[in-house]
Sequence to fold (188 residues):
Amino acid sequence: MATTADFRNGLCIEHNNELYTIVEFQHVKPGKGGAFVRTKLKNLKTGKVLQHTFNAGVKINIARVERRPYQFLYKDDTGYHFMHRETFEQVVIQEELINAPELIKEGQEVEIMFHADTETPLDCELPPFVELKITYTEPGVKGDTATNTLKPATVETGAEVNVPLFVNEGEVIKVDTRTKEYSERAKK
Fold:
């Protein structure tokens, strides 16, 4: 058992018989009345974010979760197949648990979060940025850089990302997995 004083971003708690992770929290001490904690909680099963207010000092159950390093192998009808990088144990995960499934490529290293008591996978996170090669994009027009204009580009995983006009086919770019947007050209 823990209290609201133990809140921190990323903490996994049990709330209303479901598992949530704390996305954001703020301790509030108004002039009148008791203190409270305003939170944003992300449901680990559905991915929905809800706002909830806890009174200060309320006891909560912390769920034991473990983050383990895995490597993506392949995708088929049953789901996405991953292999543990140290034990070589394989696990199959459904697409809903992956934060950016359209940006995952063979050999990609990820972190999978497991509920420690039941050994069920809860979440699969790609690194914040992935490097992907552009397989198709329209060529940019020389001198057409007066504004921050973007054009669509297809990357090696089949996903479409908007890139600046100066980026060409065959180049490797960094894509932010949280926003699914172009970040920069990859360093050679």
